[in-house]
Amino acid sequence: MGMSDFLEGYTFKTLRPGDIVKGKVIKVSDEGIIANIGYKSDAFVPKNELSLNPNFDVKKTFNVEDELDLYIISVENDEGNVLASKVMADDKLSREKIEKAYKNEEIIEGEVIEVVKGGVIAYSLGAKVFIPASQLELHYVDKLNEYLGKTLRLRIIEYIPGKKIVGSQKEVLKLEREKVKKALLSNLKEGDIVEGRVKNIIDKGAFVDIGGFDGFIPLSEISWERIKNPREVLGMGDKVSIYILKVDEKNEKITLSLRKVLPDPWKNVETKYHEGEVLKGTITNITPFGVFVQLEPGIEGLVHKNNLENSIKTYKINDIIGVEILNINQQDKKINLKEVPLEEKDIVEIEHQELRITLGEIFNKNF
Question: Which residues pair with 166 in a beta bridge?
Fold first, then answer.
């Protein structure tokens, strides 16, 4: 009986180069795989046609019974097998997926397989996607080799069929940050106390990361004591407990206060100080209408120019002068003072605990 007689009664699919067929893996080796494609011959897929990643392990990636889409390169090679490519099948099928992901702004995943000038190449949806270095993170990236082998979440930001596919992880991170921001703005309320980390310090205050969103502490809300620079109290990276002073959902701003979580030195001021009492104080500010004198950190009083012994021009910041308490307004946090000569014997020396001691209750460098 001849071969034609043997094959009579059997029907095989017609196969042509360029077809894409389903295949089931029947053998795996270091050189590639063999798959049953329902044809008179099995299909051989060499390693370089299984993945764009030259360093992948065939045996660790593929298993017998795996089902694959395969592109027919040739119907019969030198060994009588069909030569096929998973890479080419993925490429052909991926065009529709890539276009859909681009139009719908879908988030996809891609494994970084190569570092190139200006960015990296990721393999996603069966295609090579270029990710510029500027689109990898929210911050500047210079060590691109650290991304090799990593799986990134991407959005396709530019797509020209057959020519260019550009992806961005930065856009995904920005989207997630916006979600965190909106959640924080809707959940936080004035009066809450939260944990945060000092992220940036400027002359007018400090920015604190409170869980994916930066709130701002104005200079006046950093300490009860008058300070000229936030760095007198805060350092970059400090972890702090912080008070939510104001939440502005419309403008997406959160105003914070550090001093609100510190003991208020004005709380018992009327029991600590009394009208007619004479004390020593330090000049902290000089204005056209008088000088401000610190009695203790966080507690200042005003000596009006009419109650000064000399012309305002003769005083300097940090000068120590004697003052008499004229009146105390605890509710408005105001004390009116009158200068008295330091030589007077009835000046009381009062030791007050400095506010800085309580910062240990707020800063916890170890948590």
Answer: 130, 158
8 Å CB contact between 29 and 58: yes
pLDDT digits (tens, 9 = 90+) for 240-283: 999 999 998 888 889 999 999 988 888 888 888 999 999 999 99
Q: Please give the pLDDT value at position 90.
A: 83
Integer CA distances (angstroms), 155 to 46, 134, 164, 208, in order = 31, 14, 14, 29
Q: Long-range pairs for 284-290 at CB < 8 Å and ≥24 separation?
A: 284/226, 284/317, 285/226, 285/317, 286/312, 286/315, 286/316, 286/317, 288/312
Q: Is 148 helix (H, G, I), strand (E, B) or coil?
A: coil
pLDDT of residue 78: 67
- Residue owning tokens 């592109």: 71
Q: What's the Cα-to-Cα distance from 246 to each of 153, 195, 241, 249, rounded to whole Å?
A: 34, 16, 16, 10
What pLDDT, in 10s, does the model give residues 312-348? 999 999 999 999 999 999 888 899 999 998 765 455 5
d(CA 323, CA 171): 61
Q: Which amino acid is at 367?
A: F
Q: What is the pLDDT of residues 103-134, one digit of tens each?
A: 999 999 999 999 999 999 999 987 889 999 99
For residue 242, which of 115, 359, 113 has the smallest C-alpha distance? 359
Half-sphere exposure of 330 (CA within 13 A, CB side): 12
Q: What residues contact residue 335 under an 8 Å CB cut-off, 6+ apart? A: 269, 273, 295, 299, 300, 301, 302, 325, 327, 328, 329
Report yes or no on whether pTM surpasses 0.70: no
Q: Pick the closest to residue 85 from 177, 139, 172, 17 (CA basis).
A: 17
Q: Determine the Cα–Cα distance for residues 159 and 148; give it in Å rounded to an integer.
A: 23
Burial of 82 (0-12, 13-18, 19+ CB in 10 A): buried
Alpha helices (H) in 193-307, listed in sequence order:
269-272
Question: Cα separation of 109 and 123, whole Å?
Answer: 9
